[in-house]
Every structure is written in structure tokens, then in C-alpha cells.
Design brief:
heterodimer, A: 330 residues, Uridine Diphospho-n-acetylenolpyruvylglucosamine Reductase, domain 2, Enolase-like, domain 1, four-stranded antiparallel β-sheet, globular, B: 736 residues, alpha+beta, Aldehyde Oxidoreductase, domain 4, 3 domains, five-stranded mixed β-sheet, 15 helices, binds flavin-adenine dinucleotide, binds iron/sulfur cluster
């Protein structure tokens, strides 16, 4: 590990200040991703600012009926919070589908958003090529072993996926990320938080280097139990998604009133299938409609040597997730 | 306290030490002034190092020394003096600039702390002359060769053309299994400490005496100058059966640093430098009559090896003994690839071979419309079909029968896709398990202590398997004493010699030696007493005396014995100790020696998503005497767990450009987690095989992983009607 200095911040302002003035400084949440990457030599911060003592661990109700998840709330605490479980069960499901109990006990909600791709070539510095790790060096995955890589929104520079489960549910729920920088606070809609790789895959989010996530705000949701998080993986637990789907649906008199579909494991960001959602509005809530939506959601998919299976898998997962989410709604 | 019995399910004697952290593993020994070594590995698979720049690393904080091919001590025969498989392998000891695989050791950094060593290692830059690596397995078939191995390359029994011509039905399929890497919880680790010319190694190994000899030979020093200690091994599964490069590199680094050096492999370094299971391509042809009678079996195997050493995964070996057929023809060929040398991995050959053969048998059962058990009984081998020797013991019929009854096999629907539960298809499958019974020469000692306890000692290993416990148990049972009064010691080359803990042979080799040592120790008590004027037994004949419950007594007057502590007292308070040894007798040559089992699996498959889950496994084994029911069953269960990973999850992926293992960590290299496992029900017939060894125990370490992968694969077929012949059966392959 490369040497670094370490400090603890006890207020958001001091953390932002330290971040803005430090050179090559990074915030430390649960450390489950950052410390791993530091050991691998992928991340080399000169300064670590521990934010675990900031008063940001609370989960509180918002006036509009929404919920505010503090940035340092643990993934485990979030998943087991009564309001999360009753109002946003899909979010709880997505968190519990990720990692292991031990990791979720450490991992913070803010850190979860900023966890980095599990692309093998990014993780292992023995590979010369990785545009994300060494901009301009090339992409070893495109012609390498790319079974876990993206099929939507990829670029010739990077085909990595965002590994988070939680973020897929947050994308479907239209969450907003509240952040603070030296010039004050701003709110970033979830769909604008993560970026596509384009020709700058090293820039993964719209968060600036000197900004701190304060909270993730969930707007009031009409879906509650009419939602489902489906994750397909190589083993029953403790594996990243091959494909995952967060689906939420409101059905009225047999036809679809509103719907949300987000996918994980397919793109550089949690992927909202907006065209497919639009297609479904007003349609009968049945398998035929879901299939048509799934086809549309994957119409622009581009596959690589080892990941063509993700296209049918994603389609079938969308149909399944919508079917479960719709449940017995009339 | 009652005297110990063979087979009783005593808890592990070392269990408490393990869960409290008192058990010390190789890297945990406190050795004063120890420095930390970190191995730097290659990032190319084929070529030469043209320059290693260590300037920045040398001036990094805490660095003690850096060994590279340009400054490492020269070894006799370029470091190849100790090559004597399986103990001594062809190692990478910085003697040349050649690179033969990605992740090959190319330098060692020694520093005051582990963090400093890692930092310095990261500061080293290496330039290579890169040559194209051979990485395409299938492309190598044309030039595949049989290898210089003990496994005969090609064996044929009977008239091959006739066997296939007389067949009325045929199965002709290719089955493949992937490259895999052992991932014991404890990565390999060594602490090397020199005291003048004497070298002490704390090493995590399955073979302390193998390490001693390989290291001595490789370094060119007398065998007696090396002592190896290993009281606990945190799993090995074959990957610690050989002495790999890091062991010798630790000794070399300690010599240069002039202080003890500790090297512990990083998890990513478990992928290449310390072996793995080679991938296999197995072509099986079965010929049979309509009534299921086999007329011929052909099993042709390719497996990969490295560019530097031949290692054969003998997948066809079980085919040579499992079923009766007039024609049995098998072959083994090697494809050298630019990867680390493969090695023994739990049931090498049988694990992969029984997958192929037992799925082929399932395919045949379907073709001839027979129950899979009936087909196997139809072709039951009463004697070894190729060596023609009788089996030392075989109760496989009982395994099928008992397993089928426990599992509820009669309720199985033979037509695929006949059981549905919501989104899930349910299936049932079975297969035969088999593994050879091995045993070697072993020595042990038993000592009567002054404090009334008994110590049993053997220079063997406990891989977590229960060796400590069964040594104490067999000693106690032989002496008619409670197990609580017996202590076991192992894992030191100063002790009487034990063999490699491989091939499931530790129990069957060491416990007869323990039994012999206990008998010898009693004889010594007797001899001392009858020769001692102060003894009540002075001048009696040896056969007038007996020993039980810690007491020596006259057979004629069993109630009036004396405690052995009195004998020790009369022996100037010197503990009374004797050695014993045991080896396979010549009569064992007359038999073909194998263990047997029947495995049954129930799976559920979500074919829309491609996910398969094992709901339950039932297995019944004929493994001879169970020395300790608890430790034996946990070995068998462990084998079944691994089989679940073998069939559904495990695979090392190699980057086809650089030859580097891409999923070289436990997040991406998948082994089963609890949620992957259903109910596991294991039973053993517990019928002693005295033709094999005096206690009748055949060893249980490996058989559990055999057959089970096929049982699960057959159950998946029964569920969905789709045959996946390429392991692992991941969702992408199964998805409809
Ligand atoms: C073996 C393994 C398996 C896993 N499996 C899964 C899985 O199946 N599904 C899944 O979704 N995840 C999985 N994870 C990932 C896990 O969810 C993340 O590591 C975790 O959520 C990261 O949170 P953290 O608080 O530990 O982040 P850290 O490691 O502390 O930080 C991650 C990044 O976020 C930044 N950061 C942290 N907090 C803030 C903040 N408030 N403001 C601004 N920046 C911040 C840090 O500077 C750093 O760059 C797995 C991880 C491991 C190690
Ligand atoms: S896919 Fe992206 S992260 Fe992976 S090697 Fe290519 S550039 Fe790097």
C-alpha cells in the first residue's frame, strides 16, 4: 500500500474543507471498496478523511412523505429500517441481495454509490491496459474475458459495469443525491449521478472531487410492495449480479398506470429503461406487454465475446420482475 | 472414564485451540527478528526479463534486501537438484530470466514490515522480451503428447473394434471440465530461519518430510540440516503436497538477509505458482446391448500441463475399474500451455473422470430406457475389470440400495421436465463415487509419561481433517484407555516419519503405525518390569502380562495390576517410549483396493433465469472402518460441498492475451456459499476392509468429491431435459 495520511472529520464542513484543500484526498466510508483498491494499488490517495463520525448516519422522514438516507447510514441499517421496508421494500431487497452481511454492516450508503467497477482488468494493476485506471492505455476487456461486462451504453474505450445492487433500486425510485462542496449544497437527480463511459471512463459520476455526499433522498413512492428486485448471479449469495432488474408497477383495472424499470449488471451506470416504461403505460398488465417492453429495453444492446447471454437474460429478468411486482393488483 | 473405541465420534482434540486462536499456523509463529518477504510475480506468460529496476524499491522505507534473477544466490543444477515429483517440483527460483507463465515468481522483496515490503514490491519495474504464449487448449490437441508420467498413456483391454461393432446402442460425447485453483483458507506460508548451517522452516504443508528433502536437495545441503515444523495446515487439498517456489525462496532470502524471513502468499498468488486442477477434454464412447450390457468403453482424455513440467490429471483411471465390460480402452494426453504447473487437487482424475463417465452412464440409461441404478447393477464389476484382481472389499450394491431408500429414489420421474413448482423445475439424479485406497509406510511413537498421560507422536500432518484426534483415538483404543488421557503430537521432522497427506492415505498409513507403536510401548513396559527386581512381575514371562486401562497386570490376576506410572518411576522417572511402524504387506498386492459410494441429488432449476440449486444430497459410502464417525463424515460432507462448486461454479479464467488468471480473488473465483447448499445426508456402511489394512479403514478425504458432480448434473438434466456437458453449469449455459 502507498503511504497516506489519515484524519477524522467530525462535521460536514470540515470534511469538505479537508477534501478541497488536501492533495489527492479521499473520503473514507466503510472502506470496503476503497481500502481494497488501495491494497491493490489501484487507488493511491495521499490523504484519507474518515467521515464515519459525521452526523450523517440517520434515516429520517421527509415532509413530502419521502425518506432521507444519511450518507454514512450503514447498508445493513438501511435495509432493516422499518420505513425502508414498508415504503421501499425493493430498496431493502436490493441491498440484501448484495455482498455479505459483514460487508453490509460496514458499507455506507454514500460509499455504495461510489463503489467502482469489478472489471478484472481494472482491479489488477498487472494489466497494462485499462482506460479507467490509466487513461489512454486502452481497454483489455474488449478483447479479453468479458463475461461480466456491459451490453448497453458501452464505448470503444470502456465496457465496464457499475456493480451496485442498491443503486439499481435507487435509479428506479428516482432518488436524488444531496451533496455539499466548497460552494454549498446541490441536488443531483439519480439519473444524472452516474455517467456513461464515453471516452472518459475514469470520470464515473457527476460528483466533483471536492464534494461530499450528505444524503440520498427518496421521493414519496406509489409502489411500495408493488415492486421487486430480481438478481441473477452465479451463486445463490455473495456474487455480483450478472443481470439485475428493479421493477415497480401500478396497475389499475388491469392496465398499467405507471411503471419503473432499472437494470444492473448491464451498463456503466444503473440503467433506466425509459422507452420501455413509456411503452407500457396504458397497456394491459400481462406477459405480452412485459415481453414487448423487454424487447425494447434491449434493442440497442451490443454484446462482446463472452457476454451475449446477458441480452436474453436481461429480457427474461424484466418479464419476471414485472410479473412479480404486479402481483395480484387488479 | 471408559476406554476409547474406534469409530466413536469424539470431537476434534484441536478444536478448542482452533476456535480460540491458540492453534498456530505457519505464518503465526513468533520468530525473533523476522523480516517480511513479498514475492513479485511476472505479468507476462512467455518470454524473458530484460531488465528489473529495483532502484526506487531499494531506497523505500524498511527495505532489507531484494532478490532478483541478477543477484539471487546460485543454486546447484540451476535450482533443479530437488526435482522429484510429487514432493519436489520444477521451481522458479530466480536462477534464470526466463518466464514460463503469468504470475511466476521473479523477485523477492524483504522488508521490516509487510506494508513496507508490498510498497517496495510495487515500486519495482520490469521490462520483458515478450513471446507469444501458448494458451489455446483445443488448438494443442494435434500436438498433444502422453507425458513422462506414471500413468500409462494408452491402455486397452479386449478386442476394441469387436466391442464397438457388437454394440446395439452408443453414447458418444465430449465432456469438459475447467481449470481450477485450490483455495484453502490459509494461503501457503513459510518462515525460514538459519542458525549457522541449520535451517528451520515453519511451513504450511501436507508433507513435512517432502519439504525437508526437497529444500535440502535444492539448496545442496545435507538433509539433516533442515527441520520442518507444521502443527496445523489450514487446508491443502493437494496444493500443499509439493514444495513450491516460495518455500525455497524464503530460505534463500533468509540466507541473504542474515535473519529469518517470512513469506505468505497473497490470495492472487494462489493462482499459478502453487498448482491447480488442469482443464480436461474427455471423449467417452459407450457401446451397449439393448438390455444395457456394456460391450465397450472408450475414454480419451486431454488435460493441460505447463511448459516446464508434465502433470497428468488421470481422468480415465476410474473408467478402468468401475464397470465390467469386455473392452475398456483409455488414453491420456497432455497439452502444454503457458500457465503454472497444475497439480493434485482433491481426487485428481476421479473428480473430473467420474463426472464424465457417470454422466455418460446416465445418457446410456436414458437410451436403453433403464433405471440408472439398474444399468449400473447390470454392469457391476465383481473383480477389477482391467487388473483382474479381486477387490479388497466392495459393498457398492449396499450403497446403491441404502442410498436409494434414504433418498426416496423410487419416487423419481424418469422423464425429464416432469416435476414443476411454480417457476422451478425439479430433478433427481444419481451417480457412483469411487476413489482408490492408498497407504504407505509410516512410523509413530507412543510414550508413557510420568504424570499418567500418554503421548502419541508421528511426523504427519493434520489438514483440518482430524489426524490429531484419530491418532489419540487409535492409541487410546489400543491401550484400553480413555481418549482424554492421550495427547497427540505431529508436524515436526524430528518425529518418526509419516508420509505425504495426499491420496487420502494419512489415516490408513498412520493409524496402523500408531497401533504398532502402542503395542511396542506396552511390550517395553513389560520388558522393563520383568527385568526389574523391584517389580512384582520380576522374572515372569511376557505373555503372562497384559495392559489395559492404564494398568499392567497378570492375566491370571487382572484385579491386582499396577499403574504404568509406577513403571515409569522404577525407570528412574524416565518416560517409557517405543516406536512402531507399519507398511502395506505384500498380500495387499493381491487386491485391487478402492472405496465406493452412491450419490443422489435433488435440484431445482429456474430455466428462465438459468439458475440451478442443489436442494439435497444423499450419499452412502463404503470406505471401510470409520475411525471417527464425526471427522470422517465431515470429510465426506466437505467433498460433497466441493462437488457442488465443481459442477456449478468453479472456474479459473485465463486472459487469452496475457495468460493471466483474471478472476484471481475470492470475490470472483466462486466456491459454494451456505445458501448454495441444501440438506446433505451422509452415511457410511462401516464394514472393515482387513484385506487393506489392520484397522480396516480406507481413507475418506477424497471420495466425497467423486461422482457427486455427475449426480447433480444428471439431476439437472432430469429437471430440464437439457444436457450441459461443459462444467461449470452456470446460468448462461442453462438458461432456456
Ligand atoms: C467481496 C465483495 C462483494 C461485494 N458484493 C457486492 C454485491 O453483490 N452487490 C453490491 O452492490 N455491492 C457489493 N459489494 C460492494 C459493496 O457494496 C461496496 O464496497 C460498499 O457499498 C462501499 O461502501 P463503503 O462505505 O465501504 O465505501 P468506501 O470503500 O468507504 O468508499 C467507496 C468510495 O466512495 C467514496 N465515498 C464514501 N462515502 C462518501 C461520501 N459520503 N461522499 C463522497 N464520497 C464518498 C470514497 O471516497 C470511495 O471513493 C461487494 C464488496 C466486496 C468487497
Ligand atoms: S472495461 Fe473499462 S475498466 Fe475494464 S479494462 Fe476496459 S477500460 Fe478498464
Amino acid at each position: 500500500m502507498y503511504p497516506f495520511s489519515f484524519q477524522r472529520a467530525d462535521a460536514a464542513d470540515t470534511a469538505v474543507d479537508a477534501l478541497a484543500h488536501g492533495k489527492n484526498a479521499k473520503l473514507l466510508g466503510g472502506g470496503t471498496n476503497l481500502v481494497d483498491l488501495m491494497k491493490q494499488g489501484v487507488e493511491r490517495p495521499s490523504e484519507l478523511i474518515d467521515i464515519n463520525r459525521l452526523p450523517l448516519a440517520e434515516i429520517t422522514e421527509l415532509p413530502d412523505g419521502g425518506l432521507r438516507l444519511g450518507a454514512t447510514a450503514r447498508n445493513s441499517d438501511t435495509a432493516s429500517h422499518p420505513l425502508v421496508r414498508t415504503r421501499y421494500p425493493m430498496l431493502a431487497q436490493s441491498i440484501l441481495a448484495g455482498a455479505s452481511a459483514q460487508l453490509r454492516n460496514m458499507a455506507t450508503d454514500g460509499g455504495n454509490l461510489l463503489q467502482r467497477t469489478r472489471c478484472y482488468y481494472f482491479y489488477d494493476t498487472a494489466y497494462e491496459q485499462c482506460n479507467k485506471r490509466k487513461p489512454g492505455s486502452g481497454c483489455a476487456a474488449i478483447n479479453g474475458y468479458n463475461r461480466v461486462h456491459g451490453i448497453l451504453g458501452t464505448s470503444a474505450e470502456c465496457i465496464a459495469t457499475h456493480p451496485s445492487d442498491m443503486c439499481v433500486a435507487l435509479a428506479a425510485l428516482d432518488a436524488v443525491v444531496r451533496v455539499r462542496g466548497p460552494r454549498g449544497e446541490r441536488r443531483i437527480p439519480f439519473s444524472e449521478f452516474h455517467r456513461l463511459p464515453g471516452n472518459t471512463p475514469q470520470i464515473e459520476t457527476s460528483l466533483r472531487a471536492d464534494e461530499l455526499i450528505l444524503s440520498i433522498d427518496l421521493p414519496k413512492s406509489p409502489y411500495a410492495e408493488h415492486s421487486h428486485y430480481l438478481k441473477v448471479r452465479d451463486r445463490a449469495s455473495y456474487a455480483f449480479a450478472l443481470v439485475s432488474v428493479a421493477a415497480a408497477i401500478e396497475v389499475e383495472h388491469g392496465s398499467i398506470r405507471s411503471v419503473r424499470i432499472a437494470m444492473g449488471g448491464v451498463a456503466h451506470k444503473p440503467w433506466r429503461a425509459e422507452a420501455a416504461e413509456k411503452l407500457l403505460i396504458g397497456k394491459p398488465a400481462n406477459e405480452g406487454s412485459y415481453r414487448a417492453a423487454a424487447e425494447l429495453a434491449l434493442v440497442n444492446a451490443k454484446t462482446y465475446e463472452h457476454n451475449a447471454f446477458k441480452v436474453p437474460m436481461a429480457k427474461q429478468s424484466i418479464v419476471r420482475a414485472l410479473t412479480i411486482a404486479a402481483g395480484e393488483q387488479a | 472414564m471408559s476406554s476409547a473405541t474406534i469409530g466413536a465420534p469424539y470431537i476434534r482434540l484441536d478444536g478448542r485451540a482452533k476456535v480460540t486462536g491458540a492453534a498456530k499456523y505457519a505464518a503465526e509463529f513468533k520468530v525473533s527478528n523476522v523480516a517480511q518477504g513479498v514475492i513479485v510475480t511476472s505479468t507476462i506468460a512467455n518470454g524473458k526479463i530484460t531488465r528489473i529496476d529495483t532502484t526506487a524499491a531499494e531506497s523505500a522505507p524498511g527495505v532489507v534486501t531484494i532478490l532478483t534473477p541478477s543477484n539471487a544466490p546460485r543454486l546447484p543444477k540451476n535450482g533443479e537438484a530437488g526435482v522429484n515429483p510429487p514432493a519436489g517440483r520444477r521451481l522458479q527460483l530466480l536462477q534464470t530470466a526466463d518466464v514460463h507463465y503469468n504470475n511466476q515468481p521473479i523477485a523477492v522483496v524483504v522488508a521490516e514490515s509487510l506494508e513496507e515490503a508490498y510498497l517496495a514490491a510495487a515500486l519495482i519495474t520490469v521490462r520483458y522480451q515478450v513471446d507469444a504464449p501458448k494458451l489455446d487448449f483445443e488448438a494443442g490437441f494435434a500436438e498433444a503428447h502422453p507425458g513422462k508420467n506414471k500413468v500409462p498413456p494408452m491402455l486397452s483391454e479386449g478386442n476394441v473394434p469387436e466391442g464397438f461393432e457388437s454394440a446395439e446402442v452408443r453414447v458418444d460425447q465430449v465432456y469438459t471440465t475447467p481449470m481450477e485453483n485450490h483455495n484453502p483458507m490459509e494461503p501457503h506460508a513459510t518462515i525460514a530461519a538459519w542458525d549457522g548451517e541449520m535451517l528451520t522452516l515453519h511451513d504450511s504443508t501436507q508433507y513435512i518430510f517432502g519439504v525437508k528433502q526437497s529444500v535440502a536437495k535444492t539448496l545442496g545441503i545435507p538433509n539433516d540440516n533442515v527441520r520442518v515444523l507444521c502443527p496445523f495446515t489450514g487446508g491443502g487439498f493437494g496444493s500443499k503436497g509439493s514444495t513450491w517456489s516460495h518455500v525455497v525462496l524464503a530460505a534463500m532470502a533468509a540466507k541473504v538477509a542474515k535473519r529469518p524471513v517470512k513469506i505468505s502468499l497473497a490470495r492472487s498468488q494462489m493462482f499459478g505458482p502453487v498448482g491447480g486442477r488442469p482443464q480436461t477434454h474427455q471423449h467417452i464412447t459407450l457401446g451397449a446391448k439393448h438390455d444395457g450390457t456394456l460391450t465397450a468403453i472408450r475414454h480419451d482424455c486431454y488435460s493441460h500441463t505447463s511448459m516446464i513440467e508434465d502433470f497428468v490429471e488421470p481422468s480415465s483411471s476410474a473408467t478402468r475399474m468401475l464397470y465390467e465390460a469386455p473392452v475398456i480402452t483409455t488414453s491420456q494426453k497432455l497439452v502444454p500451455l503457458a500457465v503454472g504447473t497444475p497439480t493434485f487437487q482433491r481426487a485428481p482424475g476421479e473428480a473430473t473422470g467420474t463426472f464424465a463417465l457417470e454422466v455418460a452412464m446416465d445418457e446410456l440409461a436414458e437410451q436403453v430406457k433403464m433405471d440408472p441404478i439398474e444399468l449400473r447393477l447390470k454392469n457391476y464389476a465383481e473383480a477389477d475389470p482391467t487388473s483382474h484382481k479381486p477387490f479388497s472389499g466392495k459393498h457398492l450394491r449396499e450403497c446403491y440400495k441404502q442410498g436409494a431408500a434414504t433418498f426416496g429414489w423410487s419416487k423419481r420421474q424418469s422423464a425429464p421436465r416432469s416435476q414443476r413448482e411454480g417457476h422451478l423445475l425439479i430433478g433427481h439424479g444419481m451417480a457412483t463415487a469411487t476413489y482408490p485406497a492408498n497407504r504407505s509406510q509410516a512410523e509413530a511413537a507412543v510414550r508413557f509419561e510420568a504424570n499418567g498421560r500418554v503421548t502419541v507422536i508421528s511426523g504427519t500432518q493434520d489438514l483440518g481433517t482430524g489426524t490429531y484426534t484419530i491418532m489419540a483415538q487409535v492409541a487410546a483404543a489400543t491401550l484400553g484407555m480413555p481418549i482424554d488421557l492421550v495427547d497427540a503430537e505431529l508436524g515436526d521432522t524430528k518425529m518418526p516419519q509419516g508420509p505425504v497427506s495426499g491420496g487420502s492415505q494419512t489415516a490408513a498409513s498412520v493409524t496402523p503405525a500408531v497401533q504398532a507403536a502402542a503395542q511396542q510401548a506396552v511390550l517395553k513396559l513389560v520388558t522393563l518390569e520383568i527385568g526389574n527386581q523391584a517389580s512384582p512381575f520380576h522374572n515372569l514371562q511376557p505373555d503372562e502380562l497384559d495392559f489395559k486401562g492404564g494398568k499392567l497386570f497378570r492375566k491370571a490376576a487382572p484385579e491386582s495390576g499396577i499403574a504404568f506410572t509406577e513403571v515409569v518411576k522404577r525407570n528412574n522417572n524416565q518416560p517409557v517410549e517405543a516406536k512402531g511402524s507399519a507398511e502395506p504387506s505384500e498380500s495387499t498386492e493381491e487386491f485391487s483396493q478402492h472405496s465406493w459410494g452412491a450419490v443422489f441429488a435433488e435440484v431445482s432449476v429456474d430455466e428462465t433465469l438459468g439458475t440451478a440449486r442443489v436442494r439435497r444430497l444423499t450419499a452412502v459410502y463404503d470406505v471401510g472402518t470409520l475411525l471417527n464417525e464425526r471427522t470422517a463424515k465431515s470429510q465426506l460432507i466437505g467433498g460433497l460441498v466441493w462437488a457442488t462448486g465443481l459442477v456449478l461454479e468453479e472456474e479459473t479464467h485465463i486472459d487469452k492475451v496475457t495468460g493471466r488468471p483474471v478472476n484471481n480473488n475470492l470475490a470472483e473465483y466462486h466456491v459454494p456459499v451456505n445458501l448454495d447448499l441444501g440438506d446433505i445426508d451422509v452415511a457410511a456402511l462401516n464394514i472393515p476392509d482387513k484385506n487393506f489394512e489392520p484397522l480396516g479403514a480406507r481413507g475418506v478425504g477424497e471420495i466425497g468429491i467423486t461422482g457427486a458432480a455427475a449426480a447433480i448434473a444428471n439431476a439437472i438434466y432430469n429437471a430440464v431435459g437439457k444436457r450441459v456437458r461443459e462444467l461449470p453449469i452456470t446460468p448462461d449455459k442453462l438458461m432456456a
